[in-house]
Hints:
Elements: H1 3-24, H2 32-47, H3 57-91, H4 108-114, H5 118-128, H6 134-141, H7 145-207
Amino acid sequence: MSTDDSFAAAYREHYWAVSRFVARRLDAGEEHEVEEVVADVFSIAWRRRAELPDVPLPWLYAVARNCLANTVRGLGRRRRLLHRLGHHETVGGRQVMDSPDTERPGSWVHEALARLSPADREALRLATWEELGVDELAVALECSPGAAAMRLHRARRRLRAQIDRMQMNVRAGQAGRAEQAGLAEQDEQAEQAEQAGRAGRAGVESRD
């Protein structure tokens, strides 16, 4: 198969996998960037089509990671500019409202992942979302299989530690709420007893 044919086959087979890979790593409100990043990925793949391996998807993920890094840096510069513009508008008496989709609702998994380093997050995403084995993970991370396995092991251990820490905080919060509820119940019972005592004394006085 010629290099052109290999590229065409990789494009047909893996376009949507690369699109999902990119979309998962961009924030809400940046979906319009997905097609641009994917186009960059396959443009680079076309120029380097002689380097396409027999199993091209992990290699395409590695290219996509580099393209995303450039895009994220550009988006960061854009956000900083918009922030400065927004501050200027506010000072001038006008207010710039945030878009309703500037924040994406998350879950405890996303919260735990957010507490990890970018390198740990990426190793876990590649292994879980993209379902890469260690050898494929090494290609995507551009490191040796041994290093990839170690990075994945450490990332999983750190994620587990974050989840345990979050669960401890939840339990502590529940215990605090339970204690407050118990104190409130005790206060209510004391108040009821005091009211009953006052009623009893009032009944004795009325008989006297």
